[in-house]
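assembly run, all chains below
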Amino acid sequence: GESVGLHLPTLSVQEGDNSIINCAYSNSASDYFIWYKQESGKGPQFIIDIRSNMDKRQGQRVTVLLNKTVKHLSLQIAATQPGDSAVYLCAEDGFGNEKLTFGTGTRLTIIP
Amino acid sequence: SAVISQKPSRDICQRGTSLTIQCQVDSQVTMMFWYRQQPGQSLTLIATANQGSEATYESGFVIDKFPISRPNLTFSTLTVSNMSPEDSSIYLCSVTGLAGELPSSSYEQYFGPGTRLTVT
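ok done. output:
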């Protein structure tokens, strides 16, 4: 079946450095991709999204890149801060019906 | 944004019993969903809660095991029936389509804090 997966389950980054979190998806028909941040004991929180007709989208300290050729999605976090420590989840809306398929998640740890 | 609350926040239940989880939103919403997040795994969609009609279940989930109600545009319940240890998980509700929000290019699906269920 279709799936969304992540390359690395854990990532440790020095405070102040940039973080890059990757995600591979398998549904080539997916039109919409979203990154969520999930802190311990909380539900996922929307970070940024991108449609399939775009390659890049920027937010506040975050950038999402979409490479449709290799079905790869990445989240870049600039100048990582301790508050960025969380699990980051990628998700796709493969059928345009708001039903999301989630990846496993990458746990980002910030090293002081 | 939406403020979503879930009750209970956590519970420990005995196998064979049932637990009903409530999801309350502070504004009317179009869509409500229920997800499960098993330990160390991703979120998996259980069903779409439809107001005034039966929920729409995803493959692998059935109404007898996970009955869902949605009596209005701000409230839904998920029941985990005849529980077994394999049902130990975090259950999350999510919503889209907040009343009064202007359509935009982004799609924000808001999640509740989750209900952590442990079945012994």
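Chain A touches chain B at residues 4, 32, 34, 36, 41-46, 49, 51, 89, 91, 93, 98-105 (CB under 8 Å).

Chain A has one domain: 4-111.

not gonna interpret more than that til we talk
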